[in-house]
Amino acid sequence: MDSSAWDDRYADSEDLVWSAEPNRFVVQEVADLAPGRALDLAAGEGRNAVWLAERGWDVTAVDFSPVAVERGRKLAGGRGLQVQWEIADLTGYVPPAEAFDLVLVIYLHLPAADRADILSRARQALRPGGVLLVVGHDLTNLSDGVGGPQDPAILLTPAAVVAELADLSVRRAETARRPVRTENRVVDALDTVVTAVRP
User: Fold this and answer.
1) Where are the domains of the chain?
2) 168, 132 contact by CB (below 8 A)
3) Could you write out the three-class secondary structure of the chain?
């Protein structure tokens, strides 16, 4: 995985590549949680990190693209919000253990071994009672959805994610529909959504 390709993708657009609005599943799963300390892994341009900060969370946002992180800083600064930004490749990033009440892993698509390592470190970063939320393009999106990566080796399934969370209590594990507006109509993308809690 090469950060320069993502730097180029972010730099090629004057606007945010992704919306400034938070991911719908982050809102669904997190809106009712009491604010604490949150870790947003693969934060991109910071839309979820900024949304959390607006709600009183103490947020650390990590991404390997310096361009994305700079955009996140501007998004947060424009709203008068404090977010701790870190530039790091998640395949080597080790967050502090038992330090976070919430860890997000949103649309991070890697080979299974890398994903397993990152989810292991994400689990270890949770305090007891902390919540891990994983969202990504589902394998079935290739045949029944729209958009997203086209390499089946990096797509998710609820079962594959849950298999990496053996020591957590799973609250939600499903393939969920996400409406996407195209030029002429609204179609569904299919996402894996898994929420789990550290006992």
Assistant:
1) 3-188
2) yes
3) CCHHHHHHHHHCCCCCCCCCCCCHHHHHHHCCCCCCEEEEECCCCCHHHHHHHHCCCEEEEEECCHHHHHHHHHHHHHCCCCCEEEECCCCCCCCCCCCEEEEEEECCCCCHHHHHHHHHHHHHHEEEEEEEEEEEEECCHHHHCCCCCCCHHHCECHHHHHHCCCCCEEEEEEEEEEEEECCCCEEEEEEEEEEEECC
- The C-alpha atoms of residue 97 and residue 113 are separated, in whole angstroms, by 21
Q: What is the share, in percent, of the chain residues with pLDDT greater than 70?
A: 90
The model's pTM: 0.91
Domain 3-188 has CATH 3.30.70.260: no
Q: What is the pLDDT of residues 104-121, one digit of tens each?
A: 999 999 999 999 999 999
Residue 38 structure tokens: 């949150």
Q: Which residues contact 192 (CB under 8 A, 6 or more apart)?
A: 134, 135, 136, 137, 138, 139, 156, 157, 158, 160, 161, 174, 175, 176
Would you tell me how many other CB atoms lie within 10 Å of the CB of residue 77? 12
Please answer whether residues 133 and 176 qualify as being in contact, where contact means their C-beta atoms are separated by less than 8 angstroms: no
Structure tokens at 87: 């530039």
pLDDT of residue 86 exceeding 60, the answer is yes
